[in-house]
Design brief:
The chain is α+β, with helices and mostly antiparallel strands. It is built from 12 helices and 27 strands. Helices cover 31% and strands 21% of the residues.
Length: 609
């Protein structure tokens, strides 16, 4: 649970790894780093989110690399964010004293985070101050694959053997004799470290305190735009910042998570690279951001989706941050994986899957683009119309579905529903821009698909809509998203029955839901998985639509209580232990915090969804 003044707690590692709950996220709109409760940084990709990691001790504590700033004989720690910022404060207690470490990926002085421009300084700032007693601080920079350094200017030039393309420079307010140093400090003393890449600042005045203050100021200026006054206000504000930390500020795209290959579950093989942009994230992210005041970020993501589609002329389910094809999936046999959960993967093999929901996602983005006062050029509209024509045919064909199964495809109900979205939005756009010859056909096919979902996909014996359009297969929590995309009414008796069936039969306990049951819905991969947090937020939204406001509030509160003390959530939760699983932090889970909070606030105010 989010805690602005958390107690100190012991540092626990399992098999050499911190629990995900003990990691904080910092970022600058180009990349992100994870900072441990023990003062370590085990994850940093440079210069971008999807670059090869410079530090990936997260995936191999012995060989992956880290940047550690900690006290010797560490007993316990606590951490928190400076309010309304991505500046992280960690306090470490040793037998002889307490030190406070402030970490940030630095932003330029006066940076405007609403601009479609980079705000980062290409600097990681780590500033330690002794609060009480005396301590010995240990500073270690160890990139994956090793490095060598030489004195240059006011610091060290660092050559990382695996990354000769990076110009790295480490500066300090105290002498550095190498990449591993020890410092005896007493109350009031400081140790400042700045790791730079790209444009080197080694000739500039060294003032870590000022850079940290300017970074915090930039975040607070941006957060003044936040318009939210509903349940879990503090956590929603934190979720907004976490989404911004997953945002590529130059391109407008959003990574699903800033990490790769964190397993779900531990010891399993469901380890994927999430450092790319999924088209399906757009609709949900745009809804969430716009409802809390961040119209420019929403517009940037919509524009990015349309640009990516226009460049490729055929919609891919995911792209790199720059809108290019995602690299082919490979396994990295040198790394043991988080808590020895191999394999570690780079790239994503689902990138070339058939997933028909992408038609609806792209056309829904185009519809929202027009609704907010923008224009569509004729050539783009022609391409979108062709996409609608494809959706009118492909809904009958098998695909891998929203969950990207690695088994034989089926005609998934959710995919057919998103083809309905494509046709409905195309008809709406056509009424504005003209194409009268196709509008009637698109409307008729959209209506037919809605009837099929409520009719043909209905399983009378199970009393629910099935995961497959022919009425076969098991139960699928993605069906909870259909009312949210206006495919079927949320209060339709068959949707209400499906909601009840999912809440009961896919329950992992205490409000958590599985996406599906592997015995009933095989996905081509061995083993089970945890509870998928976004599905529970979808359940909150359906309960609101069906008038069960008190149940929705209780469920929402219980889900928010699962956040870490820093207010962060993973993709999945281990239902047995409550531990975090999967890539972390997960953008979709934080979208759920925002969207369900907005929906609850509107429902309590009597505003019709």
């Amino acid at each position: 649970m989010l805690d602005f003044d958390p107690p100190f707690r012991p540092i626990h590692r399992r098999e050499g790894y911190l629990p995900l709950e003990d990691l904080g996220l910092i970022g600058d709109g180009s990349t992100a780093a994870l900072v441990g409760l023990d003062g370590s940084i085990p994850w940093l990709c440079l210069p971008r989110f999807d670059s090869e990691p410079l530090l990936c001790g997260l995936l191999d504590h012995a060989r992956g690399g880290h940047f550690t700033l900690t006290v010797e004989d560490l007993l316990e720690g606590r951490h928190r964010y400076e309010p309304d910022t991505a500046v992280l404060v960690t306090e470490l207690r040793a037998p002889t004293g307490v030190v406070r470490i402030t970490d940030a990926l630095a932003l330029r002085a006066g940076a405007d985070l609403t601009d479609d421009a980079g705000g980062g300084r290409c600097e990681l700032v780590r500033s330690a101050e002794v609060l009480a007693g005396t301590v010995r601080l240990r500073a270690e920079l160890e990139p994956r694959g090793g490095a060598q350094s030489r004195v240059l200017g006011s610091g060290l030039e660092v050559r990382a053997f695996r990354r000769p393309d990076l110009r790295l420079h480490l500066r300090s307010n105290r002498p550095l004799t190498g990449l591993r140093t020890g410092h005896h400090l007493q109350e009031g003393d400081r140790l400042d470290l700045v790791l730079s890449w790209g444009r080197i600042h080694r000739h500039h005045r060294f003032d870590a305190e000022t850079v940290l203050r300017e970074t915090a100021d930039a975040w607070r200026r941006w957060m003044r735009k936040c318009r939210y006054d509903g349940p879990q206000k503090a956590l929603v504000r934190r979720a907004v910042i976490t989404l911004k930390l997953c945002d590529d500020w130059v391109n407008g795209s959003l990574v699903a998570a800033p990490t790769s290959s964190l397993p779900a579950p531990i010891g399993g093989v469901r380890n994927w690279d999430y450092r790319y942009t999924w088209i399906r994230d757009a609709g949900y992210a745009v809804f969430a951001l716009r409802r809390v005041g961040f119209d420019q970020e929403a517009d940037a993501f919509l524009g990015w989706v349309l640009d990516a589609f226009e460049q490729s002329r055929y919609p891919r389910i995911m792209y790199t941050l720059g809108g290019e094809p995602v690299p082919e999936e490979i396994q990295d046999g040198e790394l043991e994986g988080y808590r020895r959960s191999a394999p570690v993967r780079w790239g994503n093999g689902a990138a070339d899957q058939r997933q028909h929901d992408v038609y609806g996602e792209v056309l829904d983005c185009a519809d929202q683009w027009l609704r907010t006062g923008h224009e569509l050029q004729p050539a783009l509209w022609n391409g979108l119309a062709e996409l609608a024509e494809s959706a009118a045919v492909t809904w009958r064909q098998p695909d891998q579905g929203i969950w990207e199964v690695r088994s034989e495809g089926r005609v998934f109900t959710y995919s057919a529903g998103m083809c309905q979205v494509a046709l409905d939005r195309a008809a709406t756009i056509g009424e504005r821009l003209g194409r009268p010859e196709e509008i009637a056909t698109w409307r008729a096919t959209a209506d037919e698909l809605r009837r099929l979902i409520l009719g043909q996909a209905w399983d009378e014996e199970a009393q629910c809509i099935s995961e497959h359009l022919d009425g076969g297969g098991g139960l699928d929590a993605s069906l909870l998203a259909l009312p949210l995309r206006r495919v079927v009414p949320g209060d339709h008796p068959r949707m209400a029955a499906t909601t009840a069936a999912i809440a009961e039969r896919l329950s992992a306990g205490d409000g958590l839901l599985y996406r599906y049951l592997h015995d009933h819905s095989p996905d081509g991969l061995p083993g089970d998985e945890g509870a998928f947090l976004l599905c529970s937020f979808w359940l909150v939204d359906n309960l609101i639509l069906q008038g069960h406001l008190e149940r929705a509030e209780d469920l929402y509160a219980s889900l928010c209580a699962r956040a870490s003390p820093l207010g962060l959530l993973p993709e999945q939760i281990d239902p047995t232990t409550g531990a975090f699983m999967g890539n972390f932090p997960q953008a979709f889970s934080h979208i759920g915090i925002i969207a369900s909070g907005v929906n609850l606030a509107r429902a309590k105010a009597g505003i019709t969804p």
